[in-house]
Amino acid sequence: xxxxxxxxxxxxxxxxWGLLPPLQLVGNSLHIFLGLLLIGPVALKTCSTCYRFxxxxxxxxxxxxxxxxxxxxxxxGPLVTLTSLAVLGSGVGLAVTGPGPGEAGWLNFHAExxxxxxxxxxxxxLAYAWRLPRILLGHWARRIRAPRGGAIRWLLVGTSLLAGLxxxxxxxxxxxxxx
Length: 179
What we know:
It contains seven helices and no strands. It has helices spanning about 10-20, 30-55, 60-65, 70-95, 105-130, 130-140, 150-170.
């Protein structure tokens, strides 16, 4: 696909070319496969976050005892969710419609939503990064017990990855026009 096709407006061409995600470099087929693979884990993370939100605001004692996230993270949370859904949704839209006349709108939206997602996720990850050394050192020193329900969590993560893999395999033919 030539993003600088003369039929595309100049602004669209520049925007599209300038904001292509790094995965574009590894090829469209792999890009689409990885995007579809991530739908399961992103859905699980979104549901998990909504569950914790619901339990905290309905007064569940263990969740209230742990306390709310910082105000910045309470604002970032919905932005992380919305931008993640925008990136994955626009990617599915691109995969379904394929390259062609209607592609420029989806492609621009996908690239721009990726840029927003990257910015929001960078702040989100940096906000939590300070906890990582304590968690890792605690596990290595065996001061922190494994949380209850750990097996169920691993089962859910594995199931979400398998669901994403199944989705990616069943819809792999959508990548063919992008090769």
